[in-house]
Amino acid sequence: MTDTPDVLKKIIARKREEVAARIKQVSLEEMKQHAENASPVRGFVDSLHSRIAAGKPGVIAEIKRASPSKGLLRKDFNPVEIAKSYAANGAACLSVLTDVDFFQGADGYLIEARAACDIPVLRKEFMIDPYQVYEARAMGADCILLIVSVLDDAQIDELASLAMRLDMDVLIEVHDERELERALTFNMPMVGINNRNLHTFETSLDTTVNLLGRVPENVLVVTESGIHSKEDVAFMREHNVNAFLVGEVFMRAEDPGAELAALFAVQDK
User: Fold this and answer.
1) Are 68 and 104 in contact (CB under 8 A)?
2) pLDDT tens per residue, range 72-83
């Protein structure tokens, strides 16, 4: 984490405090029990693959109220209605922000969104501790996010192994070649390539394109950040990238689901 941007350092420091506080409220043993009693997992990677196999883009549609770089994205924020709208308009999966302090998210948003539809849900969170993995399953998450830039290899191995033992999928996120090389050593079936430069916050779809050749064919590539137009979607699909995590452009739209349908219209292969 020596090259980690300041905002990420702040977030991770806050996460450590948050996890310590949460364990005092609900013990690790209690959380493990809640995870065991959670509703059955919905296959996250399977849902993406089935959409892609049908010639359609696999869209992970994000429910995100705000972000540190863009501030408030959506004033009229109703996770239930957004989830229903996404599911009705072809989303393969949902991504729900649960971070409170930096993204104005909430665990309750994930619980409500998942209950409102029948598609799998990613807990979009800064995962640093096994407690959070049990917590994710307990609230109904079908997939967790592991950000390579904020974890060492031992942490990735521990968190990913635990997620898989709980039958959850893992989206392992990278930003550059070095992180991708680390991620691939864990033999995950899915990798997310984030097109956002964490130092400048600028996005470039070339980030995904430039790393594609290093990803084995059996690994599903999810392109993240920077998808704003039909041209962006077409550009990615021309490079055989068929899974997308999109949030901001939907959150700024009057009807997020309608925006999803419009953005990915006539994109079937």
Assistant:
1) no
2) 999 889 999 999
